[in-house]
Every structure is written in structure tokens, then in C-alpha cells.
């Protein structure tokens, strides 16, 4: 407990723990600013329309089924009403998506608009299977459901079996499904096959999904957004992504998805839970995510800096006060605050460069007075800038972040081991001995000889 080395290391560990307080405060500030950005996205969603999921086209037939139960020796009649759905044999969806960035203050959000061309082919022979003495069929109609009806723009359909049909608002089915429906006439149902071709303009925010209701379904989507997020239950069979946008193609069939099982006559489908082709207008790692990721390496940066100072003290004999360690550590914490503030205005990479230079200037001027040399101060500043460069690559290369971080730690440890390989650590662990005062020369005290 009397060892100076023990108290030195304990004090430095205490300084690092103390610096956790401002680091946590900066982390909370990042979360707060990120929540403001999320509020902007919610505002855009409320002002326009939310994520969209296209369900259909489907042929819906209202069915009233009569059945009887024996109750108290009486035959009681009951009626059950439900929707019977005929799914298309083939479904082809071709879409062109245009993404726009909207700004509210310093925060951005994306709104997309898609022009969709939809082709579906049905077999009407299944209508005859529903006819019976206990069943009464209503007028069939085609259903096209969407996630948010506010995003529906222009809608047009070609003639069906030579007849022009009307488009009506509302999905017209049970459950929480928005959209449109197209009433079918007897003439339209005369043919054994019914082919539908329609165009639909649909706007939204976030994700766009298409439920592959066809026995064989295919979707092709072209967009000007270069950061797609392929999600959902099916990945595209092929896709191309470039700086100008992306193009993706999905395919599926009932053999793979068993989608016909979702449309049971006895239950209302869970429209939002049906598996779908899906893509999200994803925001690439923004300044808040990158700054939050960077602050996780703050303790590593501070520990390496303190280690460098400690080795410098050990080799030169120049003593640094814990307060000087603490001030340099606070300058390193300030780097992340400056980074966050600047990144909201100039972008993450320019903000990183400016914050690194500001931190280097502050530490360079201060360390020149502490270390009594511009040369020593310049070496430490270059080392700090080098660590900033390494950290930047750590953030940009997620796949090799562990490898790069391990290499930095290994090099730092090797440097400490190499520089102190001849140092006697016992000389630091033992308190300095005070020399006893020299005994006076007896002859010098004589006033005579």
C-alpha cells in the first residue's frame, strides 16, 4: 500500500472512471438528438402515408351459409357470413419507385412514390364449386388492399372481357384492410378466365411490400434510392445496387409459401401478418449511429493515451499530475461532443476531421507546457491523430472492426513492452529512501590543533 506505483495506477484508473460521467452524458445527448430525428420521420408519416403493403388483386365473394342445430328438440336455423377469396393463378407486379428527401429543420426524412403496373389472371371455375342449397352468394368483386389508403394516387384498369368496370373506394372485406374494390358483373364472369391489368400510383414512407397471392408471383422494382433494405420473408432472387439506385426481382409460388392457407373461409385473414416481398427505403448509418458507435471506443482511446503518458513518465522521469491526465482526458471527451454538433450540419466525415484537428490543437498547446517541449508535444499530437484515423477505419469497416481493433491493442502493448524492456519496475514500487545527514567532521569542530 506504500508503493508509489500502486497509488499511481490506482489514481489513473480513478481518472478513467471519472471520465465515464461526461461520456455517459454525451451518449445520452446522442440518443436525445436521434429521437428528434425519429420524430421528423413520424411527422412525415403522419402528414403523408406510412409503410405500404399491397394485397391482391383478389376476387372476394360474400357468402351466407345456412346450417341447423338441434336445440331442446327443436331444429334451429343459423346463418354464417364470410368472404370466400379466389386467388390469382399468376401475379406480375412491375414498379418504378422515386424517393424524395424532405427536410424539417436540420433533420431529413424520405418519402417514396411508386408507379405500379399489375397483371393478374384468375380462373372463375371455382365459383361453381361454391353453389349449393345452403349457400347464398353475393356479388363478387376484386379487392386490392394497401397499408395506408392516403397513399393511393391515380388508379386505372383496362377492360375486363371487353367491359369497363368502375373502381370504388374501400376494400369492402372484413378486417382492417384499406384499399379499393372493383365490382364484377355477370358478363365479366362469363369467361372461364379473367385477366386484369391495372396501374396504381402509391406513395408511402418506410417499407413497400407486395403479398405474393398468385399461384406463381413475380415482382420487379426499380428505384432511384441507393440504400435498399431487403427484408421480410423473401429475399430477391436477383438485385443490382449502384450509386444511382437499385433494381430487384422477387419470385415465389404456393409450393414455397403455402399462401392459399392464409385465406380460410372461417376466419378473417391477418392482413398485416401475411408473408410478403418487401424492401425498405433504408437510411444508411447516419451521424447519430456513427457517433454512438464511435463513443464506444472512447475508453480505448483514453486508456491508450494515459498508457502513453505513463510510459513517458517512466522513461523520462518527468512527473505528470493526475489533474493533467484528467484535463487531457476531458479534451478527448470533448472531441465526441464537437463531432456530434458538427455532423448535424456538415456530415460525419468532415465533422470527424474538424473535431480531430480541434482536439489536436487543444492538446498540442497544453502538452507543450506540460512536457516542456514542442517536439514531445508534436509526437503526442501525431499519435492522437493516428488513433483518430484508426478509429475512423474501425467505424467504416464493420466486417473487420474486431481484427483492426485487436491489431491496434497488440501494437500498443508491444510498444509498451519494447520501450520498457530494460526498465527496473522495482525502482518504482519502492519508496525513495532519504539519505541520513552527514555527520560533522570532528576536526572541523576544533578551534585549535
UniProtKB/TrEMBL annotation:
TM regions (residue ranges): 294-312, 324-342, 348-367, 379-395, 401-420
Pfam families listed in its UniProt record: CreD
Xref: InterPro entries: Uncharacterised_IM_CreD
UniProt keyword annotation of Membrane present: yes
Keywords: Membrane, Transmembrane, Transmembrane helix
PANTHER family: INNER MEMBRANE PROTEIN CRED
Protein name: Cell envelope integrity protein CreD
Gene name as annotated: creD
